[in-house]
Amino acid sequence: MDAQAAQIARLRRILEVSRQLAITDDLDVLLGMIVRAACQTLDCERATVFLYDPKRNELWSRVATGASGLCVPADRGIAGAAASSRRVVNVSDAYADPRFNPEVDRQTGFRTRNLLAVPLENLSGELMGVLQALNRRQGAFDAADEELARVLGAQAGVALHRWQLLQEYAEKQRMARDLEIARRIQQGLFPRQSPQVPGYDIAGWNRCADETGGDCYDFIALDDGRLALLLADATGHGIGAALIMTQCRAFFRAMLSVTTDLAAIVERVNELLMRDLTPERFVTAFFGILDQRRHELSYVSAGQGPLLFACADQIFFSGASALPLAVSERARYQVQRLEFARGDRLVLLTDGFYEATDAKGEVFGQQRVADLVRAHGGSAATELIERLYGQVREFSGRESPADDLTALVVRRVR
After folding, report:
1. Structural domains for the chain
2. What's the mean pLDDT in 210-219?
């Protein structure tokens, strides 16, 4: 077989390898194919595929014929020279080249005579790795070998990029599934229906900015007929805030099984959250117990505000009565009381309502909330919440809120 025929045969072998590289999504199988193709096509004793880690700026291998995995800086050695220059590096005498590191030879007992290093790039020219071929069986690597290495390297680079894209897609799909599961779990923790309290119309509602959120509300019927209320907002939104909120809700429910002393409950919840949360994390929360027989609401507002109370044609806003949870282990919480006359309403909203902004950066604010509550004083609790959300969505011009939105309305009807 003459030289031209041999070259054509080797190119055909690369084309066949390219076809095989396109049908596997297993990295180890893919790397093994590239190594075997290099050894056969370039007629060398060994080959190594180094993958490029841009975060660490390192080249690392999982497959190397005759050697275990290696990890080297991406700007050092002969592989690093190929990565940095994006050119084929052909070394005819390894030990005569100052870039060559003989330590691997000493560890493996292998003697490197010559080597060829070729950068592996994707179609956009991004570095995916380096293919290194060691010890051509007959003499040193020549110009024809360099050209074959470029062709093989181009195919291998595209195959590695394809594998990377498939992995990223699979990871996004997995995360999407996990977030959907988390969303369902969190939504399942919200009350399934509004509580039926004689003489009262009570409703709660939540809309997350992401799949999961850092807001929650809850209703807990007590053995003596009273109703415990919770509305809380953890810093941030997303899965981290959702986990904190789930924890806070669980603590509140657990403490209610022991005592109904609100001050003691909130102080204990604060202590528990202080142990678990990092300094930049905290929770604003409203804890209340409604006694429908006395038409009295006892509550602690731990950083949660403003609280809106509407009676007749008057609207009152009040701030939080104490520090948020997980801010200070010395925090003390005093119980406040609110009496309900017929028609009075308590409207609790998380800051996603008040701080919603329009295209000009103007905030929705307290006044717009007050005006809407005043204009719809006779509306049912669920209807009032729907109107508030509709107004905020129209004001911001957003279908999805920028921050979590949670509302809780208590209205005495008789």
Report:
1. 3-170 (3.30.450.40), 190-412 (3.60.40.10)
2. 90
